[in-house]
Prior knowledge:
α1 links the parallel β1 (8-14) and β2 (35-39). The longest helix is centred in the middle third of the chain and has 29 residues, at 106-134. The protein has eleven helices and seven strands. It has helices at residues 19-30, 42-54, 71-81, 106-134, 155-174, 194-198, 204-208, 214-226, 236-247, 250-260, 280-291, and strands at residues 8-14, 35-39, 59-63, 84-91, 138-142, 181-185, 231-232. α1 crosses α8 and α4 (106-134) runs parallel beside α5. The mean pLDDT is 89. The protein has a seven-stranded parallel sheet, sandwiched between helices. The protein is elongated. The protein is α/β, with parallel strands linked by helices.
Amino acid sequence: MIDEKASRHAVVVVGGSRGIGKAIAKVAASEGRPVVLVARSLEHLAEAASEIRIEGGEALILDLDLCLAGAPAHLEEFLTEKGLLCDVLVNSAGYGLRGAASVLPIDKQIGIIDVNIRALSELTLHFLPGMLRRRQGGVINLASVASFLPGPNMAMYYASKNFVRSFSEALNAELRFTGVTVTCAAPGPVATEFLDHSGAGKVSLFKILPRYPAPYVAEHVWHGFKSGRRLVIPGFSAKIAATTARMLPTGFLLFVVGRLQRRSSDLCPCGSGLRYKACCRATHNANGRKSGT
Length: 293
């Protein structure tokens, strides 16, 4: 068993090789906290750790596939070997896919559940008991402003982020007065590789909303966590979007988000293999004109 009194308290950033995760790791390291970066790409992990060390911080890396059985235990073993314990867990790993759920690959969509929901939940539940025993530390779970909306054409991603927000806010309420904080971060679009990898960067919705720099988001999230906040929404436009989503009817949101996240070249969700505009949309428009004459 680890000697907690002799161990140093680390900030463990899952998904820390890029984007918001790396930016949060830099903020934590700048305060003199040892950070452990966890991701699958050893190359990107090494680059991120090098950047932190150049700035005077301490960073260790662990290449780990979160979807493997026993991943949390393997992470804890690594920490023990290094004389560290997880004081703050940052769950920033995740991905999304754009397109109709009926035509996107099933395995990749289920992978969103595995990473965005299952791995996040498993890691959180694994490390919370130690934090509660020490009556300090906490968890930062990265959701999105998308968690306030239904998401046609990114259905699985939006649903996963809704889970993250609901789960995190509930834990925050459960752990009140324990000394342990669970904070949910719900940023709007951030200038990272996520938008390009998911395909979301090509649609109107993500061209309308401004993209905030990852360091800006990281600073707000980290300081919000240290202040014990339940929910942090960095950026004025993201706050407006979240507030508006709570006020508008779901049917209207479904229509607007669906239109803004669809491209005219998208495959039709009916599975015909044709473009949407030349298939069901064209049929619907033709029927509408006929019924109106």
